[in-house]
Amino acid sequence: MDHIVWDWNGTLFDDVRLCLDCINRLLQKHGLSPLETLEQYREVFGFPVADYYRRIGFDFDCVPFAALAEEYMADYQEKSAQCPLYPDVLQTLRRGRELGLGQIVLSASKKDYLMQQMEQCGVQDAFDSVWGIENIYATSKEELAHLLRESLPPADRLWFVGDSLHDAHVAGAVQAGCVLVSTGHQSRARLESAGVPVADSLWEGLSVVCGEAGMRV
Questions:
Q1: What mean pLDDT is predicted for residues 58-69?
Q2: How far apart are CA 110 and CA 169, in angstroms?
Q3: Residue 20 contacts by C-beta under 8 Å, 6 or more apart in sequence?
Q4: What separation, in Å, do the N-terminal and C-terminal C-alpha atoms of the chain show?
């Protein structure tokens, strides 16, 4: 069986602008210069999250990363209820189901936050399983991918769809296919450096997966 492993934030869930606003409030609170544009944000955001925080000016000797992450998430989680799904999410998920693909969410989000957002969007029942991490520091998505791989029959094929270079890295770690979408947290130019297909929408991403899997959308 073939499974699409969807990333959530920035892939299905459109929280990019909110993330820029939240990080800018955090920067300003700690006396640092905010990121000026969404394009600038998409050029610096990445994983591990601690490295991203260092790149934009935070000094963990002054304020520990754990404290900064908690401040950020308190701001983000309160406001994320206003974030929508990307416009083609429901159509794409429906077509994937019609094609007989397994559909899984694997995210660097904290599991309870993830489930809350999915319920707000009404898609909590759209997936065969949902995998999220158990802390807010976003360091173990690769470990989750290995656990996911081990939970499925060895002959099953996985196709990761995400919006970051980290998604391509995680897919490679479990010998899975990967398609990246350019509508999320990192720019198309950065995504192209991963050496995997880059799509400009989820529907296009599904089409690429189906082509690789020998199916027709």
A1: 97
A2: 20
A3: 35, 38, 41
A4: 16
**27 vs 207: CA distance, rounded Å:** 39
- What is the C-alpha separation between 198 and 217, in angstroms, rounded? 17
Number of residues in the chain = 217
Tell me, what DSSP letter sits at residue 150?
H
Distance CA 106, CA 16 (A): 18
CA–CA dist 217, 209 (Å, integer): 9
Helices 65-79 and 16-29, axial angle in degrees (round to 10): 130
Q: By the 8 A CB rule, do 180 and 26 touch? A: no
Please tell me the distance from the alpha carbon of residue 22 to that of residue 28, in angstroms, as a whole number. 10
Which residues share a beta bridge with 190? none
Q: Helices then strands (H, E): number in the chain?
A: 10, 6
What are the strands, taking DSSP E only, across 114-155?
129-133
Is 0.85 topped by the overall pTM? yes
Judge whether residue 139 has pLDDT over 60.
no
Contact (Cβ atoms closer than 8 angstroms) between residue 4 and residue 161: yes
Please tell me the distance from the alpha carbon of residue 148 to that of residue 129, in angstroms, as a whole number. 9
